[in-house]
Amino acid sequence: ASPTEVKILGEMIKITPFARNLGVMFDEMLTMERDISHKVEGCMGYLNNLWRIGDKLDRDSKVKMVNVFIHSKLDFGNSLLYNINGSELNRLQKVQNSAVRYIYNRRQRRGVTALRKELHFLPVMERIEYPVLCVDTTA
Fold this sequence. Notes:
Shape: elongated
Strand content: 5-15%
Largest sheet: 2 strands, antiparallel
Order of helices and strands: EEEEHHHHH
Helix content: 55-70%
């Protein structure tokens, strides 16, 4: 059995399966699954609300709403997601795909790659890699 407490500098600290720091949720194996679940859940909630007012907005306004409510949430702390497993990455990509469908008012499950390119949205993996590469080249 693993310990439930550890002694650090004379203090007993309770071990928890996850921790939150600056809005990012870390699990004990650093898989980031809990953080991704939190992001997906939040983004899908925003998208459900956006669909309710979508018929009252033009495409430019929808793009702005997606950037404010969806991409900002997806991008927050995303450099920590570098090298995550494919299934977790797919969950985030599905959120972005749903946002593209919202912008173009398409509920059916057709490919959105061409539409995403038309909007100049980077795929989620590239959104994760880009800031890491920028830091690497400026160092």
